[in-house]
Design a protein that fits this description.
This protein has 15 helices and 19 strands. A 6-stranded antiparallel beta barrel has the order 11-12-17-16-15-18. The protein has a 5-stranded parallel sheet with strand order 2-1-3-4-5. A 4-stranded parallel sheet has the order 7-6-9-10. Helix content is 38%, strand content 24%.
Length: 473
Amino acid sequence: MNKVKAKAGILLIATQRFRNLGADTEKGSYEQRKLTEADEYIKNMSTFCDTVYTGQIYNRADLDLAINTFLSEKIDCIFALYLSWAEDFLWIRFLRDMSPVPVLFACTTPEKIPFQDTFTENDFVEFLSAGGLVGTLEASGSIPRIARPMMQTAVGIFSEIMESTKSFFAAAAVRSNLRNANFGLLASYNEVMWSTYLDPYQIFTKIGPELRFLSVLSLKQEIEAVTEKEVNKNCNMLTERFELLDDVEMDKLKESVRASLGLENLARKADAAMVVLNDVDTVLLTEIGLRPGFLPTPSGGDIPVVPEGDLGGGLAVYILKLLSGKCVNFIEPFYIDTEKDCFAAGHAGPNDYTGEGKAKIGRDVRFAKSEYKYAGAPFAWYVIPAGMKTMLHISECGGRYKMVCSLLEALPAEHFITSYSHGQFRPVKGTVRELFDKLIKIGVTQHFGVVEGDYTKELESLAHILEFDFYRI
């Protein structure tokens, strides 16, 4: 799955009153100066989004063209900015008439004032050109009066505005993707973890993904349809890339790979962008004989899978995957290691093993002594690599969703928790105990997504857009 990229409408508001001022000056007219400024915005934003720009907004016809183009292009978000002071009737009309989409309303402050006084016409026009703050303040009063949703503001120098825009656009692209995505639930929630339950209707109407209910029978049929050629190809890829532990039985490795391919094929037929799998469901284990252990599949799988039927955990993993395009792991904190000032975390069951961490092929010890047909069928046993990580939790409370994120440092580690994908972590700020004290006070569940890098700004913007309660620890 690739990192998402927004299609963004660019709304740059100018004023007809100043348009031809300074035509004979050394820096040219007001309009020429604003054309240069607009080009700089478009050039920079084009490096991280697809821009939709119809020109500067001087009058109602310009605005109508912009709005109609934004709608026809199905943009994900809008960047709006006053290039100088300008009348606010165009802005009010935009707030009133534009369909609801995320809007970043920015105010760029100059790093250096390019004039000392306004005694010459050139400097006077430069003074007028630098008056974006005036226009922004005038326009700001209409934001609460019209109460348009998904509005965010930003003030700063050009480079700061571009950074804010980049994270906001990424969040808006995630929103669009969520509204068009399908999630597969196979086949139920986990009945011993009620705190992880989410309302599918709420998810569909407030966040976006449509839930497809996948059956164990359908999975069984897909598994049976997987050819020996596909199984052998994927097994060879795994054993060539990863160490195969001595106690792994080859026939069970083949069945784990076969089940993984079957699950991925089932998801594709359901047009599911990700799968929330209740991998400890008795019916699944009885009918299939194991839980699939190699997802994504080695021959090019790109559908994330999370265990234990946790839709909130699935949302967290999927959102981090969209923001990063990287390997995202599903974890639960196991225990605090006071001596090492860290905590151990990870999860049994299917987990992404395609990142830079260390992976081996080992038995599923949790079910190795069970009566299931393929008891102990192997998994990709993965150690999460060292580095800066974003940890994200999503759950529901009282009809609202909460998003809780933290920055962690993953520590260098070897395999130490048998057959569980795992790692060792400590918070970048504060102590381990303070982290969990705050999490418990907020009220979360045990499940989190973890990815390399810092995506807290993007997540804060996304929480604002989706009207989630947001906590950064």
